[in-house]
Amino acid sequence: MDNTKKLGLIIGSLRKDSINRMVAEYIVSQLPENIEVEEIEIAQLPLYNQDYDKQTIESYDQVRQKIKEVDTVLIVTPEHNRTLPAALKNVIDIASRPHGDSAWSGKKVAVVTASPGTYGGRECGLDVRKSMQALSAKVMIAPEVYLSHASDSIEDGKVSNEKTQQYLTKFADALVQFIEE
Ligand SMILES: Cc1cc2nc3c(=O)[nH]c(=O)nc-3n(C[C@H](O)[C@H](O)[C@H](O)COP(=O)(O)O)c2cc1C
Predict the structure, then answer these.
(1) How would residue 93 be classed by pLDDT, with cut points 50, 70 and 90?
(2) Ligand 1 center to 91 CA (angstroms)
(3) What is the pLDDT of residues 154-168, one digit of tens each?
(4) Which residues, listed in sequence order, are joined to residue 77 by a DSSP beta bridge?
(5) Residue 4 lies in a domain
(6) How many folded domains does the chain comprise?
(7) Hydrolase as a keyword (predicted)?
């Protein structure tokens, strides 16, 4: 029996040395082999405009299709000005349209935020959850991960702090259960 599951990964940061990308890489390293991970790229997407619903935009079609194809989407993202980074909001909007054909409807979605700051990007994490609930996605409830002081856990481009590794492994285990449900 084929027990392969597809996980789409969205990184909310466009930055080359993104902490969130490092956190995502650690989580992905903890997943079993039957979970195929594919990054859903968001940097190249033109800013959403409702007029485009009547047109064919190739990059929009591709990203909508990718989200539809995967079993679960994992979003790992920083917080910008106490809410979502613009590029992340953009892909959420793009994939929510055209009206009646949202890629988010019924989609399993898990959210992780990480920040060098004290609050771990929590406001952003909560706002992503709010949008996803409004879009009828199935949001992974627990554990909630808003990783604060995240830069302190990174060395040579990797999550190196043992406690943070354990924390993220616990999340990865719960994510596997969520994907398999
Ligand atoms: C425009 C902008 C707004 C930011 N706002 C917040 C914020 O509201 N909360 C927070 O914890 N960090 C904020 N930061 C700091 C980011 O958390 C930090 O730059 C982080 O490293 C970005 O994630 P990345 O390393 O994955 O790119 C902001 C950074 C930028 C560039």
Answers:
(1) very high
(2) 19
(3) 999 999 999 999 999
(4) 113
(5) no
(6) 1
(7) no
Tell me phi and psi for residue 32, to 5 degrees: -70, 165
The answer to whether residue 3 sits within a structural domain is no
Question: What is the CB < 6 Å shell around ligand 1?
Answer: 13, 15, 18-20, 78-82, 115-117, 119, 121
Counting DSSP H helices and E strands in the chain, the numbers are: 5, 8
- In angstroms, what is the span from residue 19 Cα to ligand 1's centroid? 10
- Give, for 72, the enclosing helix (H) or strand (E): strand 72-77
| Structural domain contains residue 81 | yes
What are the pLDDT digits (tens) for 61-81? 999 999 999 999 999 999 999
121 domain-assigned: yes
Structural domain including 68 reads 10-180
CATH number at residue 172: 3.40.50.360
When pLDDT is cut at 50, 70 and 90, the band that residue 1 belongs to is confident
Burial of 1 (0-12, 13-18, 19+ CB in 10 A): exposed
In the chain, % of residues over pLDDT 70: 100
Nearest protein CA to atom 4 of ligand 1, as residue: 80
